[in-house]
Every structure is written in structure tokens, then in C-alpha cells.
């Protein structure tokens, strides 16, 4: 889980394009959404997921009315977190939504699910360009939400239970709600997705684009609130102080070993001679993890080119030697470890991918009943990781969705849109039940002095001190969803992007949205008390 894995490659990629927008994700703020607007969190959260989009001129047009077809696209996108393509249904015909229309696949998908079957008129016209009404939005959402319930629950609700909600709400304009849609409208209301105001429910009113974003955001939150995440903590650098936090975890990976490949045909698991070694008193944190009934994995680190990982993977005899060494270490450790976490980094060339998967199969065979977790980088620029093959072999796959840091563009380590895009790419190959979102607790600092900009990664404790000091400006940055710290001193002007409790909470939300197995924290020594409180609420 090392924080240096992507810096060079990311820099090369961004430099080639001249800007951080070399990535397809939306990495700039919308030009017409005012800072601290009430809809800001909803708009940028859904934008990061790809559920909503702005326009080519980087505007969102938040106060424009939302069309029927645009709403349907929002609903369909919100209901499919895998990010897969939407296929139109050839058998469903609408007179004014031809197959070549951009909204056709979304509309036909929603019609097939019977979420919007009430919108087309008797002639088969949907009039997709019309501004969508609030009751149409509520009814479609209510139908979608009821489709997730059991048939008995849905039947009881539509046959009479909905009237209890109507009596509870007592909207002043209840009589203007289409009574055939009322059961579905009130189910959306009950679930907290739609709401009224002092003027009633206003069923015939249109919905602005930012109101639609807020509505969809509430819809997503209603669906993911109860989802649980497994949390893995990496016990590595300066992590001793976090021992008492282990009951908040489900799994802990101890960063105490490294791949050693010194000569052809021979390799071993080194637990003594590098910075990745068993520390004095190593049994204390292991015992703490045992008392907390956690999974306990031994993390094995190596990086290309320093550790000659690619060359090692091509050496069948060395791979076999390593597996025997690994089995010996695990045997000598008794019940200390229930599995391993392999973190072999820096494989840029695609010709390493097959060798890596072959190695993983050999490791898995040697582990017996112990678990195998594999950490992988984003595949934008590291092509030596066959995610599909890795996902087939490993019990868990940790996606290191960070270290996009780039000095010239000012891109920080883990902006939410790139994290989301990385997850979507990984889900095309790795089952969500195995995928773990890696979160790196770090800060990126740009210092400008004398016309020169330098980049640093300050210590977390120093950043926390700086936040508490006078004379600084603090902001929540969108669309990054990271804390921004700005100040000046004798060294120049400083800008820091910081992974704090709020940004970690948003990444937990992202993992829940995609239905992932869990998240991992690199590393426990950096996680603050506020961060732990956030983890505890997951």
C-alpha cells in the first residue's frame, strides 16, 4: 500500500496532455454552480458517480427545468451502480422516441421495468422534451423503490397502506395529486426521497436540475444507508498507537515482510533485513488482533524496478523458491496469520500480467486454507495487472485508488471523481463481493515561492497542527471532496489537499454505492481520532 506507486506514471500521462483533464472524469467545478450552494454536495456527489453530467462549456445549468428524458436517464443511472452500458429494448415502441434518440436506451429500460409506464399517452407518445412534473418524478421513484420490496410488501402498500402516509402528511394540495399515482408518490415521500413544503406537494410543478440532483442523492442514500462494509487496517509505519482501535476493524494487514530476489532461480520472503521486518514485540499487535477476532494478514511488499519484480515473475524457479519460503514463515509463525496480502507494485508493461496471475495461483495453492488478498493500482497506466485473472484467484482485491498527485496541474492524490472512475473500471473485471476500496490517509502540499512550485507530502500530525493554527483558510473542495488548507509564511504560499474525516466518509459512501466488499486504510498510524469516529459509524 505504498504511496509512491503512481507519481511518475501519473505525471507522464498528465504532462502528455498538458492538463489534469487527460482523465475522462469531471475534475473541474461547474462554472455556474455557486460555491456553498445548498445543492453543491448532491450535484458533485452524483457527478463523481457519473449519474449526472454537465455541459461541454463546464456549466451545470442548475436552475433549468429538467426534461422527462433527462430525469429518466438520472433514474436509470442511479439504479445501476456497476456503470455498465444501458441496452434499449427493441420490442418497446414509442412514436416520439426513435431508436436513434440519445434517451432511447434509458427510456426503454425504464419502461421495461414499469417505472414510467404511466407517462406515455394513449397514442404512444412520451413527449420526452417536456419538463418533468414533481408527481411524475415521485411516482417513478416510488415504483422503482417498491420494485425492490417483496411482492407482499408492495401489494399491502398499493392496496391501502399508502393512505396512512397521506393522512400523516396532509399536504394542502393532496387533492391535485393524480390518484392513480398517489400510492407511488407517497412511497417516495415515506422513504424520504421526495418532500413537500409550506405550499404543499406541488405535484404539477417542474423540477430544476439542482432539485433533481438533490432528489436523486436522497434516493441513493435511502438505498445504501444499511449496507455494511468490511474494513481492513494496515498496521505499518507508526501504528502502535492504533492498537486500541482494532475492534473497529474486520481485518488487519501487518507490513512486516518484503520479496527478496537476489539471484536467478532463488527468492525468499524477507522478514528481517529491510524496513519491512518483524519488529521487536511484534506479537503484541497480533495478540490484540486475535482478541478482536480479526482476520490477520502478513503484507508482502515489492516494487519494480528496485525489487526486480518483473524479472522475478518470469523466473519460475525463483517463484517456486519464494512460495516455499512463504510457507516456512507462515508455519514458523504458528497461528499468527490467517492469510497474506501481496502488494507488488510498479508493473507498467502488459507482458507481466500473465506471469503475475500464474504466480498468484502458485501462492494460493501454497496457502492452503489461508486467505490471499492482492493490492492493485489503477490500470490507467499500470498494464501489468490482469484484474480479471487476479479477481479469479484472490479472495479479496484491494484497489489502490489514490496517488494521482501531479505537481504541475495541482491534482491531489485521491479526488472523488477519479476514485469513482477507477472503481467502475475495476468492476468490469473484479466481482464487487471481492473488491475493496483502498483509502490512503495523506496530504499533498504545493509551496509557491519566487515563481517556483514544489510538491511535498507533509506529516499528518503537522497538518493537524496547521489546521488548528490561526491565519489559515479552510475549504471543502469540489469536485475533489478533499479539505483544502491555504496559508502563507516566510517560505511562500501554501496549498494543502488533505484526506480528512469528511472525505473518508464520502469514500465510504462511494464504496457502499458500488456495493463493494469494503475499504482499506493505509495506514493505521496516520488515521486520526476523527477518522476513527467516522469508521465506527460505517
From TrEMBL:
The keyword Hydrolase applies. Residues 235-538 form the GH18 domain. This is Glycoside hydrolase. InterPro entries: Chitinase_II/V-like_cat, GH, Glyco_hydro18_cat, SLH_dom. GO terms for biological process: carbohydrate metabolic process. GO terms for molecular function: chitin binding; hydrolase activity. Pfam families: Glyco_hydro_18 (PF00704), SLH (PF00395). Gene3D superfamilies: Glycosidases (3.20.20.80). Residues 1-22 form the signal peptide. It comes from Paenibacillus elgii. Keywords: Hydrolase, Signal. Residues 26-89, 90-155, 168-230 form the SLH domain.
Amino acid at each position: 500500500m505504498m504511496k509512491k506507486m503512481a507519481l511518475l506514471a501519473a505525471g507522464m500521462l498528465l504532462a502528455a496532455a498538458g492538463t489534469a483533464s487527460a482523465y475522462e472524469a469531471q475534475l473541474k467545478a461547474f462554472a455556474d454552480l455557486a460555491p456553498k450552494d445548498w445543492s453543491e454536495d448532491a450535484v458533485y456527489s452524483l457527478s463523481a458517480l457519473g449519474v449526472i453530467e454537465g455541459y461541454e462549456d463546464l456549466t451545470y445549468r442548475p436552475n433549468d427545468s429538467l426534461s422527462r428524458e433527462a430525469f429518466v436517464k438520472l433514474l436509470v443511472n442511479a439504479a445501476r451502480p456497476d456503470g455498465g452500458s444501458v441496452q434499449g429494448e427493441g420490442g418497446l415502441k414509442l412514436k416520439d422516441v426513435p431508436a436513434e434518440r440519445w434517451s432511447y436506451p434509458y427510456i426503454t429500460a425504464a419502461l421495461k421495468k414499469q417505472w414510467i409506464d404511466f407517462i406515455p399517452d394513449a397514442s404512444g407518445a412520451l413527449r420526452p422534451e417536456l419538463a418533468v412534473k414533481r408527481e411524475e418524478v415521485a411516482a417513478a421513484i416510488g415504483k422503482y423503490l417498491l420494485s425492490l420490496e417483496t411482492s407482499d410488501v408492495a401489494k399491502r402498500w398499493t392496496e391501502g397502506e399508502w393512505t396512512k402516509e397521506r393522512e400523516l402528511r396532509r399536504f394542502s394540495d393532496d387533492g391535485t395529486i393524480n390518484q392513480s399515482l398517489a400510492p407511488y408518490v407517497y412511497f417516495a415521500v415515506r422513504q424520504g426521497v421526495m418532500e413537500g413544503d409550506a405550499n404543499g406537494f406541488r405535484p404539477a410543478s417542474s423540477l430544476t436540475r439542482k432539485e433533481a440532483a438533490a432528489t436523486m442523492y436522497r434516493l441513493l442514500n435511502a438505498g445504501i444507508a444499511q449496507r455494511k462494509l468490511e474494513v481492513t487496517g494496515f498496521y505499518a509505519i507508526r501504528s502502535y498507537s492504533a492498537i486500541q482501535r482494532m475492534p473497529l476493524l474486520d481485518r488487519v494487514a501487518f507490513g512486516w515482510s518484503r520479496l527478496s530476489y537476489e539471484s536467478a532461480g532463488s527468492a525468499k520472503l524477507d522478514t528481517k533485513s529491510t524496513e519491512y521486518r518483524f519488529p521487536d514485540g511484534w506479537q503484541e499487535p497480533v495478540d490484540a488482533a486475535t482478541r478482536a477476532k480479526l482476520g490477520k494478514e502478513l503484507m508482502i511488499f515489492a516494487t519494480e524496478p528496485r525489487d526486480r519484480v518483473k524479472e522475478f515473475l518470469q523466473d519460475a524457479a525463483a517463484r517456486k523458491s519464494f512460495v516455499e519460503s512463504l510457507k516456512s514463515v507462515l508455519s514458523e509463525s504458528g497461528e499468527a496469520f490467517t492469510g497474506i496480502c501481496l502488494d507488488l507494485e510498479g508493473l507498467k508493461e502488459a507482458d507481466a500480467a500473465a506471469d503475475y496471475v500464474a504466480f498468484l495461483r502458485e501462492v494460493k495453492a501454497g496457502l492452503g486454507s489461508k486467505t490471499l488478498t492482492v493490492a492493485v493500482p489503477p490500470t490507467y497506466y499500470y498494464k501489468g495487472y490482469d484484474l480479471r485473472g487476479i479477481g479469479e484467484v484472490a479472495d479479496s482485491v484491494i484497489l489502490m485508488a489514490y496517488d494521482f498527485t501531479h505537481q504541475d496541474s495541482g491534482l491531489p492524490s485521491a479526488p472523488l471523481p477519479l476514485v469513482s472512475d477507477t472503481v467502475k473500471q475495476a468492476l468490469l473485471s473484479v466481482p464487487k463481493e471481492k473488491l475493496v476500496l483502498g483509502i490512503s490517509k495523506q496530504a499533498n502540499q504545493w509551496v509557491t515561492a519566487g515563481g517556483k512550485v514544489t510538491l511535498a507530502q507533509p506529516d499528518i500530525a503537522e497538518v493537524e497542527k496547521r489546521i488548528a493554527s490561526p491565519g489559515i483558510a479552510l475549504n471543502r473542495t469540489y469536485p475533489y471532496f478533499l479539505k483544502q488548507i491555504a496559508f502563507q509564511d516566510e517560505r511562500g504560499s501554501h496549498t494543502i489537499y488533505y484526506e480528512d474525516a469528511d472525505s473518508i466518509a464520502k469514500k465510504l459512501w462511494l464504496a457502499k454505492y458500488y456495493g463493494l466488499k469494503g475499504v482499506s486504510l493505509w495506514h493505521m498510524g496516520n488515521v486520526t481520532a476523527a477518522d476513527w469516529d467516522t469508521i465506527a459509524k460505517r
